[in-house]
Amino acid sequence: MNIDILHQPDSAIAHITMSAGEELVAEAGSMIAMSSYINASTALRQGKSGSILGGLKRMVAGESLFLSIFRSPTHGGEVFLAPKLMGDLLVYQMTPVGLVVQATSYLASEANVDVNIGFQGFSSFFSGESIFWLDIRGSGQVILTSFGAIYEISVDGEYIVDTGHIVAFEKSLSFNITKVGSSLIGAFLGGEGLACRFQGKGKLFCQTHNANAFGKVVGSQLPAK
Amino acid sequence: MITYKIEHSPAYASLQLNLNANETVLVESGAMAAMDSWIKMKSKMKGGVMKGIGRMVGGESLFMSEFTAEGRAGQLFLSPGVPGDIQHYYLDGNGLMLQSSGFVAASHTVEIDPSFQGLRGFFSGESLFLLRVTGKGDLWFSSYGAIIEIPVEGDYVVDTGYVVAFEDSLNYHVEMIGGLSFKNLRTGLLGGEGLVCRFRGKGKLWIQSRQMYNLLNFLDAFRPAKSSD
User: Fold this and answer.
1) Which stretches in chain B have pLDDT values below 50?
2) CB A82 to CB B182 under 8 A?
3) Total CB pairs under 8 A between chain A and B
4) Domain for residue A169, yes or no?
5) pTM, 2 dp
6) CATH number of the domain that residue A11 is part of
7) Chain B: nearest CA to A75, how far in angstroms?
8) Are A105 and A144 a contacting pair, CB within 8 Å?
9) How far is A208 from chain B (nearest CA, A)?
10) pLDDT of A18-68, one tens digit each?
11) Which of A139, A157, B55, B67 is most buried, most CB within 10 Å of its CB?
C-alpha cells in the first residue's frame, strides 16, 4: 500500500494506491473519490476485543467511530481520503509499542492495524469534553489528521500539552492530567484547560490549533438555534 | 489566451489576470479584489452568455460582471469568496461541467449555461448545480480545499460533495454505494448521505480536498442555545 499526502498542511488529502487484495480501514465519510472497482463495506471487523462492535456501543453514549473498509480486487486501486476540517495528515508507521490517538485525529489504517475504541482510564478524566481515545496496535501504517498543522515532539523526560492539542502519542509515554496554571480556577479563567503531563521516552504528535477553541469562537457568534 | 498567475495555492489561491488592451473577461461578481484604475466594470450581461433565469436556481446565485482593460493593458486580481484553490482550463471547442459555486472567471468568448440535466440525481439534500461551459477560451474555477486532477479512463467514483468540475466527454450518474451509505448515522445538518457520482469514459475530473458542509456541521454544534423567552 502506498500512501501519498498531498497539499499539506492546510488542505491535506491522502492518495492511497493499493495492491490486489489489500484492505484499507478508514473513518466513515472520509472517502472523497476512488477507482470504481474498489469494494466498500461497513462490515463489522471484530478484533480481539470486538473493536468495531465496541465502537457501536460507544456511539450510544455520544461517542462514535464508524469505519469503512475498502478492498482493492486488483493492483493499482486508488482511494482518496480527507478529514472533515482544514488541516494536515501524517502517516505513522506502527511499532510494537502501540499508539494512543485522539478519536477525531484518526483517519485511516492498514488492515493489520487494530483500532480499539476507548482507552480506558483516560476518557473519564474529560467529563464534559467529547474527547475520547483510540488504542492502536498492530503493524502497518496509520493516517492521522489534525486541525491545523502537526508537529512532533520527542519526549525524553517530561512534557506538558494542552489536551485540545494532542493528536497522538506513543504508549511508551505515561501521563497524568494536570492543570496548566497554579490554581484550577485561574486555569479556567485564563482559558487554559486541562493539560496532559507526559513522562518517559517516546514521540508525541500535537496540532497547531484546537478545533474546539475555533468552534467556540466562531460558533458562539452564529444565531442561536 | 489571457496570461495569468495563480498564487498562494492551495489554501488561499488568488488569480492574477493580465488583460491586453481592450480585452474583456467575465468574472464572478464580488470576486474582484484589486485592479488597475483603467479597467472598467460592467455588470450588464452580454446577450447569450447567461439566460438570466437559470442563474438563481436553488438559491445559488451566479451573477457575473465584465471587466475590460480600456485602451491599454491592465492587471486584475481575483479572489473567490471562500478560501481555497483555483484551477485554469482552456476550452477548445469542447465542454466542461462545473459546480456552479466554482466559477471564477472566463474569456468573454466562452458560453456558460446552467445545465438542467445535470441536476437530476443530485437532488437529495446535497445540491450540486452544474454549469455547462462551452466554446473557446480560458476558464478559471475554484474550490474549498485543494483541487486534485484525476485523469479518468474507465470508471471513477466521487462523493457528490467533492465534485468540482469534469470534462463533458465523461458520462456520469448519481448513485448510492452500499458500503458507503451512512444515512441512518447522519449527525450533521447537511450532506453526509453517501451519494456518489460515477464517472465513465475518458476525460479529466477535478475534485476538492474539503467540503464546506463539514465545516458548517462542525460549527453548528457550537451555536448558542435559544433562550426560552
Assistant:
1) 46-60, 116-126, 183-191
2) no
3) 125
4) yes
5) 0.86
6) 3.60.160.10
7) 15
8) yes
9) 16
10) 999 999 999 888 999 999 999 988 755 443 444 444 444 444 334 456 788
11) B67
User: What does the alpha-carbon distance between residue B6 and residue B13 come to, in Å, rounded to a whole number?
Assistant: 6
> Does any domain span residue A102?
yes
CA–CA gap between residue A206 and residue A166 (Å, rounded): 5
Among the partner-chain residues B162, B179, B192, the one whose CB lies closest to the CB of A33 is B162
Minimal Cα–Cα distance from A82 to chain B, Å? 6
Q: By the 8 A CB rule, do A82 and A14 touch?
A: yes
How far is it, in rounded angstroms, from Cα B3 to Cα B23?
A: 11
**Residue A11 to residue B150, Cβ atoms within 8 A:** no
CA distance B76 to B24: 11
**How is residue A8 written as a grid cell?**
499539506
Q: What is the DSSP string of chain B?
A: --EEEEESTTTS-EEEEEEPTT-EEEEETT-EEEE-TTEEEE-SPPTTT--SGGGGGGG----EEEEEE-SS-EEEEE--SS-B-EEEEEEES--EEEEGGGEEEEETTEEEEE-GGGGTTT-SS----EEEEEEEEEEEEE-SB-EEEEEEEEEEEEEGGGEEEEETTEEEEEEE-GGG--GGG--SSS--S-EEEEEEEEEEEEEES--HHHHHHHHHTTSPPPP--
Q: What ipTM does the predicted assembly reach?
A: 0.84
The answer to whether position A30 is within a domain reads yes
Q: Domain count for chain A, please give it.
A: 1
Parent domain of A89: 2-219
Nearest CA-CA partner of B87 in B23, B125, B131, B139: B139
Cell numbers placing A53? 462492535
Which residues, in sequence order, are CB contacts of A199 under 8 Å at separation 6+?
A155, A157, A158, A173, A174, A175, A176
